[in-house]
Amino acid sequence: MSKVSSNVVWHTPEVTRQDRERRNQHKGLMLWLTGLSGSGKSTLAHATEAYLHQMGVHTYVLDGDNVRHGLCGDLGFSAVARRENIRRIGEVGKLFVDAGTVVFSAFISPFRSDRQQARKLLGEDFVEVYCNSPLSVCESRDVKGLYQRARAGEIRDFTGISSPYEPPENPEIVVDTANLTLEESVERIIDYLRQQQLITLLADDDRGHR
User: Of these residues, 37, 39, 105, 109, which one is catalytic?
Assistant: First the structure.
């Protein structure tokens, strides 16, 4: 669906990404959380964002349901529509990264090829986080009743039931959201960011977060 108009020219800004990162005191980054519905993507994204926000990091969460209320409100759930959904999120995420923000993407994003396109677009700024939870556990958390409706045939193209989910093959982070607590899951991501020096956090001791 993506097509670049022949009548547009890229405008080089006066304020660069490097300028924004210096002001923010950290680099821009996209953490792409993927997993089945009910695997804890949104909960983990928002909890990790809250942790980083308290550390003084500029953050934002692109949540699957929220985005479909606006930016992707015109899309359905066919394979083609899902690909366009993920393409748009990748492009929006790239803008946030350019703004020097740590942005979270909490989407099922079931197809490896689509996630690979997002990785190609963002390059070294892309960190894939696999929220690994078995289908049985995700169904047991089905507070919205979506799995039940999907199994009853009321929802078409539902990932894990009538549409496939392709787990990441080499994600940067794997979080066992079926067994880890939310706090442990957040720490798993924070530990990776520290170890890889992908983001410079403000001193923990200065803000009472240890």
Answer: 109
